[in-house]
Every structure is written in structure tokens, then in C-alpha cells.
Specification:
The protein is α/β, with parallel strands linked by helices. It has two domains: 277 residues, Aldehyde Dehydrogenase, Chain A, domain 1 (3-Layer(aba) Sandwich), CATH 3.40.605.10; 197 residues, Aldehyde Dehydrogenase, Chain A, domain 2, CATH 3.40.309. Helices cover 42% and strands 21% of the residues. The protein has 17 helices and 22 strands. The strands form six sheets. Strands 14-15-16-13-12-18-19 form a seven-stranded mixed beta sheet, sandwiched between helices. A six-stranded mixed beta sheet has the order 9-8-7-10-11-21, with helices on both faces. The chain has a three-stranded antiparallel beta sheet with strand order 5-6-22. Helix 6 runs parallel beside helix 7. 55% of the residues are buried. The structure holds 1,4-dihydronicotinamide adenine dinucleotide (NAI) and magnesium ion (MG). Magnesium ion binds next to strand 3.
Length: 506
């Protein structure tokens, strides 16, 4: 025990004092009924700083009893919250977003320490985006409208939008605050109460951000529990009082949640994997396309994005120049301590993910005809020797049947493939089981539109490669998921139920 406390103190030593205090307050606790409480049986798990390999703090390892407590708190708060005027709910959620943004000086290093993501390129922008999303949904509260229907002159026929009840929101570790905002924003504004299941890999910034918002709300409206998938996530999905599940994560878990939800006949929103194509035509502006590939592959996040543009099809005329310039651009990114301002790229989340990525890289390198272009330099600092850094790799010479061209690697690995015919490249781009996003790079607007229509992906961008944008519906086709996020549509379609009321006035 004393060894453990020593190593915990060691892992935290490099953090600013305010963040250390925060971790001390959060250690072993999650948020139920607006109180920071430990799990019923006291069970904990260790959260590791992936840049140093040292323990950061203990997090709760919630089990079925904690799920029960959190769902009961959410259920108890439900009726009163649903009766709060929509505009007031919206105002509170937007104000919560402002508090989260204001807490960025503590939240950003906390997020960087638990995820390994660089503070400047990833963590601060993530917090700002999360706040922006909450502000947007707060403002959409007045859009929770029904209709009146021309049914008969002496009948009053109308529809209303009601909350669903208790929503379970299950989060991954890659962008936990943005994904939490995309789920709790529309759920709360629509009058639902929520139990968030934080990722056991990186729960602290999630719990703290939720605490800042929950402080404004009646107890039980927003709860966050932390535990593993099997011990905490699964019983949450199965709980009879959970009326809706919204999930972002792996395809396998998404499919399992869908099966569980079928038994209860409750709605689910699933945001799963991707293998998103980027199509660079001969007339594209090369520099913009290269910058778009750097951004779209999320190299500053070590490629840990479901939207990552990991299949890059480039017109044969441009191919070699594109690879050369992309390699130069990625090599310019500085890999290092996530907590340092100068760092562009931090680490991946854990050893398991790193091993998975390295295994793909090894398979690519062993493929006859393939070439791996390594971009970047692992940091030399001795205290980062155990850090889970991965050098970005660009592969050329792989064919469509390669697992690197098919599977979601969730690491800094991009495959670049030449093409010479629009129909052929569309067929290749649309192959595979995913259909999350795609980008098209061309100066020919007619081609841009033709290709955008033909792409089998839920989110298509032309001559840009942005992340999820508040107000634009985001969600995948095929095995990439079910439902939309980030928009008014997501709130109305996925967090309310519609009731028809008919009054006979005769
Ligand atoms: P995961 O799908 O296992 O974990 C995501 C969340 O689901 C976590 O909170 C986890 O505790 C929970 N969970 C796990 N099993 C569950 C169950 N049976 N019932 C309910 N909740 C459960 O993802 P993992 O293992 O962290 O990452 C593996 C791969 O998944 C990545 O390599 C990547 O390909 C993909 N992934 C995709 C993400 C996306 O943004 N779409 C995010 C994270 C991972
Ligand atoms: Mg960790």
C-alpha cells in the first residue's frame, strides 16, 4: 500500500499543484447524485500516465451496485428535470460549458496526463470544443417543438417532444470531453437525466468536467461512474430503467450493446470505427491537400480517431510529390512530453493499443512491394523512456487486400495509394465495412459534387478536413454506426420521443 502511494505521488510529481490537488480529490471517486463517492465495495483501478508509464491515481472500478445507485439517482431526478422549462435547461447546460472552458488551466494538463495527448494541439482545443458543443445545445432548447396537425376543424391534433428518461452514455478515451458533450448536451437539454460511463483508461477530466456542470443541476440529473466495460458498462446497458444508450467506441462492443438493447427494445446511438478515404485528384491544390492529410489523419492525436483519413488515394501524377511533402510535414511535428507547450504529438493511450499498432506496422513492412516512410523522431528525454510513443508511418505500395487498408488501426499509420480513374477510385473508396467519413480534393466543383454523392460515407468534406463541427450532423453508414450526433437533428431524433395528442372539441 505504501509502495503504491509512493508510486502514485511519483507519477503526479510533474503535474502543476492545482492538478495534483484535483487528482487527490478525485482519486477513487466518481459522481453520483452530485456527490463524489467511492464505489460501494471500494474497488479501484490504476490509471497510468502513458508518457511516463507511472501511476497517476486510482479510479473507481464500479460494479453493478454502483450502476444501480447511479441509475436510481438519475431516475429519481427525472420527473422534476423534465418539468424544468426547456430554456432554463438550455441555459444551465450552456453555463456548464462556460465553467468547463474556464477550468481549462487545470482540465487540460489533467487530460494530457491521463491520455498522453499533447496539451497545446489536442487537450486545450478539445476542452474549448466541448464547451462550444454545450453552448450550441443550450441554445437549441427552444427548438424542442411539436406540431399542430390539420386533422379536422373540430379536433385539436398536436405532437409533443418528450424526454426518453434515463440515458446511458458510454465513452471511450480518445476524445472523452468532446464525446461526453455530444451526448450529455442534447440529452440534458431535451429533459433526460444521464449516467455517463467514463472510460476506465482516462476518467478524471471527464468526471471533473461533469462535476462542474452537475453543480449547476439538481442532484442526480448528471452522474458519472467509472469502471471496466464488463463490470460497469454491460450492467448499465442492461439496467431496466435505462431508456436509451449512446455509445462511442469499438465495433465489437457497439454490436454487443445493440444486441443487449434489442432485448429491452430501447433505442441506441452508436458511433463506431472508420477507415475513411481521402481522394486527391490531379487538379487539387497540393499544399492544402497535404495540410488536410496531416489534420485528417489526426497525427497530433497519434491517429487515434474514428474519422482518421487513413486511406489516402492520390492521382498517380501527384502521388510521389504528395508522399514526399506529407512525409516532410509530418516529420516537422515534434513528438514529446504531452505536458510541454512545444509538443505537437504525445503518446498513444496504453501498451495494448501500442502493441496493436506496432503489429500492423510490422505486417505492412513485411508485405512484398510495400514501402514504409517513417516520419519523426522518438523523444530522447530519459523520463519519457517508458512513454508509449509511436513514430508516424506512411505506407505506399500496399494493395486493397492488405489488412492495413481494411482495418481501423487507430494509430499514426496512413496508407497512400495512386489512382488514375475516377470510377476505380470510387469503387476502392467505397469498399470495406466502414462508412464514417470521406474527403475529396479537387478544384473541379462538378467532380466534387459528383464524387461526394457517390461516396458511401456519412460525412463528406471537399477541400477541407475538419473534425466534428457543432451544428453539422455527424454519423456513419454501414458498420460505422447508427444515428447522428452534433446537431439539432441528433437532439430531436435521438433524445426525445414524439407523442401525438388528439382532442375532440365537439
Ligand atoms: P472499447 O469499445 O472496448 O471501449 C469503449 C468504451 O466501452 C469504454 O468505456 C469501455 O469501458 C466500454 N465497454 C467495453 N465493453 C463494454 C461492454 N460489454 N458493455 C458496455 N460498455 C463496454 O474500446 P477500446 O478497447 O478502448 O479500443 C479498442 C478499439 O476500438 C480501438 O483500437 C479503436 O479501433 C476502437 N475505438 C473507436 C473509437 C471511436 O472513436 N469510434 C474510440 C475508442 C476506440
Ligand atoms: Mg491511462
Amino acid at each position: 500500500m505504501s509502495n503504491e502511494s509512493e508510486s502514485l505521488a511519483g507519477g503526479r510529481a510533474r503535474l502543476p499543484q492545482g492538478v495534483r490537488d484535483l487528482l487527490a480529490a478525485l482519486a477513487g471517486r466518481h459522481l453520483v447524485g452530485n456527490a463524489l463517492v467511492g464505489p460501494v465495495d471500494g474497488a479501484c483501478l490504476t490509471v497510468v500516465d502513458p508518457a511516463t508509464g507511472r501511476a497517476l491515481a486510482q479510479a473507481p472500478a464500479a460494479g453493478p451496485a454502483d450502476v444501480q445507485a447511479a441509475v436510481a439517482a438519475a431516475r429519481a431526478a427525472g420527473q422534476a428535470w423534465a418539468r424544468v422549462p426547456a430554456r432554463e435547461r438550455g441555459r444551465l447546460v450552456a453555463e456548464g460549458g462556460r465553467r468547463i472552458a474556464a477550468a481549462s488551466p487545470d482540465l487540460a494538463p489533467l487530460l494530457a496526463a491521463e491520455t498522453g495527448k499533447a496539451i497545446r494541439t489536442e487537450c486545450r482545443p478539445e476542452i474549448a470544443t466541448a464547451a462550444d458543443i454545450l453552448a450550441m445545445f443550450g441554445g437549441l432548447a427552444t427548438e424542442l417543438k411539436g406540431e399542430t396537425l390539420p386533422f379536422s376543424p373540430d379536433m385539436l391534433a398536436l405532437t409533443t417532444r418528450e424526454p426518453l428518461g434515463v440515458v446511458a452514455a458510454i465513452l471511450p478515451w480518445n476524445v472523452p470531453l468532446v464525446l461526453m458533450a455530444l451526448k450529455i448536451g442534447p440529452a440534458l437539454v431535451a429533459g433526460n437525466t444521464v449516467v455517463v460511463k467514463a472510460s476506465e483508461e482516462a476518467p478524471f477530466a471527464t468526471i471533473e468536467a461533469a462535476r462542474l456542470l452537475a453543480d449547476l443541476l439538481p442532484p442526480g440529473v448528471l452522474n458519472v461512474i467509472c469502471g471496466t466495460g464488463p463490470a460497469c458498462g454491460a450492467p448499465l446497458v442492461r439496467h431496466p430503467d435505462v431508456a436509451k444508450v449512446t455509445f462511442t467506441g469499438s465495433q465489437a462492443v457497439g454490436e454487443a450493446i445493440y444486441r443487449e438493447a434489442a432485448d429491452k427494445l430501447i433505442p441506441v446511438s452508436l458511433e463506431l470505427g472508420g477507415k475513411s478515404p481521402m481522394l486527391v485528384f490531379a487538379d487539387a491544390e497540393l499544399d492544402r491537400a497535404v495540410a488536410g492529410a496531416v489534420a485528417g489523419m489526426r497525427f497530433t492525436r497519434q491517429g487515434q480517431s474514428c474519422t482518421a483519413s487513413s486511406r489516402i488515394y492520390v492521382d498517380a501524377e501527384l502521388h510521389d510529390r504528395f508522399v514526399e511533402r506529407l512525409a516532410a510535414a509530418v516529420s516537422n511535428l515534434r513528438m514529446g512530453d504531452p505536458l510541454e507547450e512545444a509538443t505537437d504529438i504525445g503518446t498513444v493511450i496504453n501498451a495494448r493499443q501500442r502493441a496493436k499498432i506496432m503489429n500492423y506496422i510490422a505486417r505492412g513492412e513485411a508485405t512484398p512491394g510495400a514501402r514504409a516512410v517513417r516520419c519523426g523522431h522518438l523523444p530522447a528525454a530519459p523520463d519519457l523512456a517508458a512513454g508509449l510513443f509511436v513514430e508516424p508511418v506512411l505506407f505506399t505500395g500496399l494493395t486493397e487486400d492488405s489488412p492495413l487498408m481494411r482495418d481501423e488501426i487507430f494509430g499514426p499509420v496512413a496508407c497512400i495509394v495512386p489512382f488514375s480513374d475516377e470510377d476505380d477510385v470510387l469503387e476502392a473508396a467505397n469498399a470495406g465495412e466502414f462508412g464514417l467519413a470521406a474527403t475529396v480534393w479537387t478544384r473541379d466543383l462538378r467532380r466534387a459534387l459528383r464524387v461526394s454523392h457517390a461516396l458511401d460515407a456519412g460525412y463528406v468534406q471537399v477541400n477541407q478536413n475538419l473534425t466534428i463541427q457543432p451544428n453539422l450532423s455527424y454519423g456513419g453508414f454501414k458498420k460505422s454506426g447508427l444515428g447522428k450526433e452534433a446537431s439539432l437533428e441528433s437532439m430531436l431524433e435521438h433524445f426525445t420521443r414524439k407523442k401525438t395528442i388528439v382532442v375532440d372539441m365537439r
